[in-house]
Amino acid sequence: MSYLVFARKWRPLTFDDVIGQEHITDTLKKAIEKNRVAHAFIFTGTRGVGKTTSARILARALNCEKGPTPNPCGVCTSCKDVLSGASFDVLEIDGASNNSVDDIRELRDNIGYSSMGGKYRIFVIDEVHMLSKPAFNALLKTLEEPPKNVIFIFATTEPQKIPQTIHSRCQRYDFRRIGAEKILERLIHICTAENINFERSALMLVARKAEGSMRDALSLLDQVYSFCRENLTEKEVRSVLGLVGMEVFERVMDAVAEKNAVPALNIIQEVLVQGFDLQEFIQGLQEHVRNLLFARIPGALESRGIELETDTIQKFEVSARRFSEGDLLRMSEIIKKAEYDLKWSAFPRFVAELMLLKLTYMDSTVSVEQLIKALGDPQQPSAVNIENLNNHSDSKKKSA
Question: How much is the pTM?
Fold first, then answer.
């Protein structure tokens, strides 16, 4: 038997398995229970968040031999046929390759046929925004007055390209990006079920790299598992995913604290020699500074949203003592601007080097309280001698 990737093996089979989309799955379940299922849906959202998966679950829930039910059994003939793609009552169409008006006319002609045993005939059109304007127009009349027991489910990543005349005839459900914490929980569950040893920080890297897509997270997990085999470590995951190690960012912050530009610039050379992407480097540095900023706030690193090991938290707290909150906020702004500039620059290396120079030569932030104290204490080395400053200003005016 051929190998089945995690993205297919662990694809949700029920509404309860869909992660991070409770606002949609709960609504669909209640609609089924109340027998108030609409005749047309638009499922929108970024890639890998559960649009097509939810469409298949809805199809099974409506055509299950024990239903319609919000919890399809998965063992009846109808459920098995939908899962295997062999159902005559559930037709999945790729809107990118079947986007002409003739394709839609053919579909419209087939709608009138009776079902082959299921309660509903369900048409799932993926990437529906790829349909041509005449094709959309051919759908209008059918959507306005659909045949009995016919349901359309349109899935798309670009809902703005769907005509408003189609929108007005459908119920729209917006699938959200999945939070890194929810993805992490799912990855932990999968690794535990697959008897894979892991470091929590390693799976957190995978969850963040997925950028809200559960499918991307499972594909990345497959990739790193092939390299790491039975034990997923943070160091190996960083290597596989092309992520710069935390020790590199620690060296950057050491150079910034010491206001020494040479080692900071040398790090850029090392990053490029080792084949890392500068965009990944800047994003990683931004994440590192974020952790340092939160380390200045008691309990923030342990709170939900930043999953780190205890020893890592201690390292951040020690490193963060060298900077004030104001310093770290200004650093974040400098890094954020560099990330934006990098996308449009013909010389990305200089953008990264300029960012490090700005961080290195950045003046330390002084609070109002510290300034008042310094002004009131002439023994303070940082005190400002206003009288000398005024005399210097007057002498310059006389010389002019």
Answer: 0.77
Strand order in the sheet with 150-156: 90-94, 121-126, 150-156, 40-44, 171-174
Please state, in angstroms and rounded to a whole number, the distance separating the CA atoms of residues 36 and 174.
19
CA distance 182 to 21: 11
Domain range 246-360, its CATH number among 1.20.272.10, 1.10.10.10, 3.40.50.2300, 3.40.50.11030: 1.20.272.10
Q: How far apart are the first and last CA of the chain?
A: 90
Task: For residue range 85-144, list pLDDT tens digits in order.
Answer: 888 888 888 888 877 888 888 887 777 666 666 688 899 999 999 888 888 888 888 888
Q: Tell me the C-alpha distance between 114 and 120, whole Å.
A: 9
Comparing 6-174 with 180-241, is the CATH topology the same? no
Pairing state between β 90-94 and 171-174: unpaired
Task: Give the three-class secondary structure for 265.
Answer: helix
Torsion of CA 76, 80, 83, 84, to 10 degrees: -170
Q: Which residue stretches of the chain have pLDDT < 70?
A: 1, 112-118, 229, 301-309, 364-400
Phi, psi at residue 30, to the nearest 5°?
-70, -35
> So where are the chain's domains?
6-174, 180-241, 246-360, 368-399
**pLDDT on residue 186:** 93
Architecture of the CATH domain 180-241: Orthogonal Bundle (1.10)
Query: Which architecture does CATH list for 6-174?
Result: 3-Layer(aba) Sandwich (3.40)
Q: What torsion, rounded to 10 degrees, do the Cα atoms 80, 82, 88, 91 define?
A: -170
DSSP string, 344-388: H-S-HHHHHHHHHHHHHTPPPP--HHHHHHHHH-TTSTT---HHH
pLDDT confidence of residue 297: 82
- Mind listing the pLDDT tens digit for each residue in 176-211? 999 888 999 999 999 999 888 988 888 988 998 898
pLDDT of residue 40: 92
Residue 352 phi, psi dihedral angles, 5° rounding: -65, -40
